[in-house]
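Lab channel / #folding
Pinned by the channel admin:
"Please post every new chain as: sequence first, then the structure tokens as a reply. Keep commentary short and put observations after the output so the thread stays searchable."

First post following the new format, from NK:
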Amino acid sequence: MKKTFWVLFITIIPFFIIGCAIGANITGVSAVYMITSACALASLMAYCLIIKRKEPWFLVLFTSVLIVNIGYMALSLSKTIHAALMANRIAYLGSVFLPISMLMIVRKVCKIKYRTWFTALCIVIGVFVFCIAASPGLSDIYYKSVRLHISNGNGMLIKEYGPWHKLYLFYLLGGFAAMIGTVFYAIIKKPLSSALHATVLVIAVFTNLAVWLLEQFVKINFEFLSVSYIISELFLLGIYAMMQQLSIPKKQKTSPSPCEPPSEEALAFFISQIPTLTPTERSVYELYRSGKGTKEVLQALNISENTLKYHNKNIYSKLGVKSRKQLLQLAVQTENRH
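Reply from TO:
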């Protein structure tokens, strides 16, 4: 019931925000970005509230997609160059961590381990690229010049690229290349449990690459990556959920079987060996049988812990048991016989 409530609540969020956009007369590109932001928020909330075993990189991915879409939406609603540049920085903040999180999730799905230093290096490179991409308004190394253009109520930046702008392009290409390389390596080495998983991974990565290339060569006043990233995160989440379900039966098979009741032979041997216990061992046995714990036995017999361990070892050996639990189980069976 609780899960159903959250599913319904999260489903309503996009429609609520769309209604707000219509009520506020927000149309065109801004309205679309508002819808994608609502979907990204709903996806993040669904992951946090519904998924039990969470993967940290999925949280980074869902959060990054949300930040990217909020940045695009804020940019389209900007009325001043200062607000537009700040919105652009927000969008880049999410964008630089998207390739890293996707790469780490692809690695996880492909069951390929990376060194800790490699992950740290990716994060450092991402932070460096963000600092360069966030420099417009402070430096001309990324954009030589930039101005705000408002068309049909939607703001957009008209940019002249600087010498360091290609750094972000190489960064994205490097991220996509690493993802593709990881997937094909997993296909060749066969750590993937299903051909379907490999196919979906390839589609998810190549979809983002194709959309990004389209935006580079075709002038479109809309960031289609805002949509493709949402689709990709749902693809990746679906694969990860399937892999978790496939791992459950294996864990159940390897889990220890419940303790079986003692056999008649073991019980008969146990009863026959009780008279062989020394007086002290018999006292320890009776105290255990009456439900006393280790501390209570030590106090009752006024002995050290090492001495009790010595007596326990002798008792277990004589009675043919391996633990106190088995000892008590056989003791109960003995009482039932009498």
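NK: Confidence is low (pLDDT under 50) at residues 1-26, 249-258.
TO: also worth noting, Residues 225-254 form the longest helix (30 residues).
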